[in-house]
């Protein structure tokens, strides 16, 4: 079976089995263990779906399916089981299908109705035309950077690390902005932004929490961070995401639960990324560097917070301008990314080469379809 046939199998199984099961069975069960056990067939289906694709000429599709189904779709289902995340609200059948099977995160209705806008969940990615324009721009930049990287031997340097990160940024943006334009036009709800100028990050917390891959960061927040901070796994009623902690806690306890939630969130993210790396490798071997890269971000964010609070309390110290912190944060992210995130894919294995070759092949096929000579 070719790649198109495999994609057709995924779409049909999602529409014929997963969607009716989610709408008519899961949503009617009480949140908690009942939903968790009932979700097992969907968890298994989303986990096995990427195995349809091989790790060589279908590596790009395999990574997309791993990201959309094994990661995002399963985490949205986990959120439903916990009465959290986007599926915890009431949507039409078509809207539920889009939320389940597309890499989007809708703006919560509670957030959209609020007059005081705080946090990324209250932000909107834009109208369909602006999303479509961003999709076209990112697609163009993606093609240019991929062709540039494939024009010579890939040597891992800070510049090539930035270029590879730009490819990821554009590819994820293309993957999300296209469906986002569709759902905002045809299904009548708004989605949160995918990215927000990550190169303008003034801190590590700003980078991870408000600028880089906002969709996945909010899914992780809904199913990992919020339960720890709030002190309850399952919400008895749906409330605004990322709300206040439950019960009466001392400031020290609140701070400790926040720190624990931050570390747990990055740990889970590292485990997911390491699992994706494992699935993309022919030898099915772990390299552990992706796990280390993400896990270490938690302590970095916490130390950054402590230093920032100390500086604010020290009257003799003035607040550092964002124009000073932005290049520092960018340089630090490039350095860590080069040695811990890109190195396993470029130096330790051939993953980056296989992905770039698949990207270039897709570009050539697209050019051939529109009648542009190779």
Automatic annotation (TrEMBL):
A single BP term in Gene Ontology: lipid metabolic process
Compartment(s) of residence: Membrane
Keywords: Membrane, Transferase, Transmembrane, Transmembrane helix
Flavoprotein listed as a keyword: no
Pfam family, one: MBOAT_2
Domain Wax synthase: 193-294
Pathway in which the depicted protein is active: Secondary metabolite biosynthesis
Highest taxon listed in the record's lineage: Eukaryota
GO CC terms: membrane
Transmembrane segments: 59-78, 131-149, 155-176, 259-278, 290-307
The keyword NADP is assigned to this record: no
Entry membrane topology: Multi-pass membrane protein
UniProt main location, coarse: membrane
Similarity section: Belongs to the wax synthase family.
Name listed for the protein in its UniProt record: Wax synthase domain-containing protein
Organism: Chlamydomonas eustigma
